[in-house]
C-alpha cells in the first residue's frame, strides 16, 4: 500500500496494508435529518491513522452536519460512528471524554474575544477536561511556541490577524492530543492574503502524522494535501478516491461540473 504515510512508530499494523490497520474513525451508515429533510442518507467511510481526508461537496451538501455528528454536537438518526474501538453514538458513553479525543476548528468565531490567547487555549482543557492549570499552561506554551505565537500569549484575539486567530484555534484543538482533527472550512472567512499561513500549518500537522478530516473549498490545497477525497452530493458519497482520481479523472458529468467552478 504505497499510500500508507510515514509511521510515527506507534502503528506497526499500518505497514501490513490498510485492510488490517485499525481506523481512527469509522462511519457506518450515518443518517441525519432535520425535520422532513434527510441531509445525510447513509454515509460510510473510514479514516486510517495519519490519513488526511478532504470532505468536498457543494454548499449545503452536509459537510458541516457530518462533522457536527462526529463531534457529537448533533445526534445521528441512524448508523454508528466509531472512534478507535468506541462507538461514540452509543448514548451510554461519556461524551466529554469522547470529545477530548477529537480536535475541532470551525470557519469563524473560534476564540472568545474577552479572553487572552492563553486563556482561550487552556479553557476547555481546564473546565471541560479537568486538567490542572499548570499542566494546561505548560501544554499551551509548548503549542504556542511550536506555531511561533508564544509572544502573543497575553494578547486578545482582536490584536491578532484572522490567520493568527485560526492558528491559535488549531493550537487549542490540539491541546488534548486528539486522535482526530476536524477542520471545517477554516480558511473560508479569511482575507485571501492570510489563507496561506493557515494552510501551511495544516501541511505541517500532516507531516507530523496528524489524522485530519477537513471540509474545504481550497481545491488546490485539497489536491496537494489530501490522501483521499470524499465527495458528497445529495446526501450520499458521490465519489471517493485519490485527489487525482476524483478531481482530475472522474468521468461523472456532475463531478466535472462541480470542480470546474474552482478552476
Ligand atoms: P455544508 O456544510 O456542506 O454547506 P450543511 O451541513 O451546513 O452543509 O447543511 C446541509 C443541509 O442541512 C442544508 O440544507 C442546511 O440548510 C441543512 N441544515 C444544516 N443545519 C441545520 C439545522 N440546524 N436545522 C435545519 N437544517 C439544517
Ligand atoms: Mg459547512
UniProtKB/TrEMBL annotation:
Subcellular location: Cell membrane
MF terms (GO), sorted A to Z: ABC-type amino acid transporter activity; ATP binding; ATP hydrolysis activity
UniProt-listed Enzyme Commission number(s): 3.6.3.28
Pfam families: ABC_tran (PF00005)
Alphabetical list of InterPro entries matching this protein: AAA+_ATPase, ABC_ATPase_HisP-typ, ABC_transporter-like_ATP-bd, ABC_transporter-like_CS, MetN_ABC_transporter-like, P-loop_NTPase
Keywords: Amino-acid transport, ATP-binding, Cell membrane, Hydrolase, Membrane, Nucleotide-binding, Transport
GO cellular component: a single term: plasma membrane
Keyword Lyase: no
Skewed-composition ranges (Polar residues): 1-13
Topology class, membrane: Peripheral membrane protein
Positions of the UniProt region annotated as Disordered: 1-18
Gene3D superfamilies named among the record's database cross-references: P-loop containing nucleotide triphosphate hydrolases
Family under the similarity heading: Belongs to the ABC transporter superfamily.
Full protein name: Amino acid ABC transporter ATP-binding protein
Amino acid at each position: 500500500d504505497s499510500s500508507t504515510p510515514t509511521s510515527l512508530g506507534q502503528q506497526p499494523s499500518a505497514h501490513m496494508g490498510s485492510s488490517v490497520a485499525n481506523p481512527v474513525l469509522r462511519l457506518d451508515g450515518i443518517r441525519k435529518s432535520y425535520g422532513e429533510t434527510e441531509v445525510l442518507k447513509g454515509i460510510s467511510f473510514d479514516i486510517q491513522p495519519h490519513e488526511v481526508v478532504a470532505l468536498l461537496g457543494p454548499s449545503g451538501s452536509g459537510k458541516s452536519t457530518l462533522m457536527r455528528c462526529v463531534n457529537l454536537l448533533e445526534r445521528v438518526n441512524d448508523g454508528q460512528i466509531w472512534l478507535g474501538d468506541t462507538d461514540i453514538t452509543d448514548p451510554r458513553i461519556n461524551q466529554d471524554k469522547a470529545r477530548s479525543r477529537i480536535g475541532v476548528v470551525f470557519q469563524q468565531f473560534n476564540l472568545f474575544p474577552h479572553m487572552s490567547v492563553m486563556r482561550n487555549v487552556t479553557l476547555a482543557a481546564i473546565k471541560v477536561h479537568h486538567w490542572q492549570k499548570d499542566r494546561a499552561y505548560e501544554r499551551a506554551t509548548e503549542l504556542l511556541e511550536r506555531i511561533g505565537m508564544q509572544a502573543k500569549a497575553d494578547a486578545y484575539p482582536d490584536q491578532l490577524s484572522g490567520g493568527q486567530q485560526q492558528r491559535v484555534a488549531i493550537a487549542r484543538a490540539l491541546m488534548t492530543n486528539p486522535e482526530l482533527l476536524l477542520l471545517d472550512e477554516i480558511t473560508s472567512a479569511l482575507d485571501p492574503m492570510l489563507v496561506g499561513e493557515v494552510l501551511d500549518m495544516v501541511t505541517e500537522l500532516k507531516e507530523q502524522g496528524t489524522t485530519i478530516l477537513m471540509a474545504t473549498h481550497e481545491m488546490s490545497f485539497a489536491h496537494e494535501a489530501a490522501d483521499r477525497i470524499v465527495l458528497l452530493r445529495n446526501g450520499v458519497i458521490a465519489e471517493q478516491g485519490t485527489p487525482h482520481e476524483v478531481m482530475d479523472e472522474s468521468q461523472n458529468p456532475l463531478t466535472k461540473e462541480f470542480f470546474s467552478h474552482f478552476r
